[in-house]
Amino acid sequence: MDQATGGLSSSATYLLTGWAKAAGGSEQVAVGVKNFGGTESFSKATGTAYAQQPIFLTTGSGNTSATVYCYKNSGTSAGYCDDYTLIKLS
């Protein structure tokens, strides 16, 4: 899943927060953010219990959008990403 978001402030710091899990115990779900004028950042959740996946990012000069993603690359079980929010910190 990719979700583009706009309306961000350029050169601002944000926190992307939410919850992720994989239905298969040893499988992983990758959650991240890209296309915001900085280095792509991601985190991986492993296991069947929801885990919070906080990611910090700073938009580039003139960048007012970002793409948030959630992927489950391998295995046979489902992956879940829920309640993701971008919070402006500064």
What does this protein structure show overall?
The structure is a single chain. The protein has 90 residues and is mainly β. It is built from no helices and 8 strands. A 4-stranded antiparallel beta sheet has the order 1-7-3-4, with no helix packed on it. Strand 3 and strand 4 form a beta hairpin. It is elongated.
* Tally of DSSP β-strands: 8
* Domains (count): 1
Oligomer: single chain
H/E element sequence: EEEEEEEE
List the helices and strands and how they pair.
Elements: E1 2-5, E2 13-22, E3 28-34, E4 41-46, E5 51-52, E6 55-58, E7 66-71, E8 79-88
Antiparallel strand pairs: 1-7, 2-5, 2-6, 2-8, 3-4, 3-7
Which features does this protein show?
90 residues, elongated, mainly beta, Jelly Rolls, 0% helix, 4-stranded antiparallel sheet
Summarize the structure.
The chain is mostly beta strands and 90 residues long.
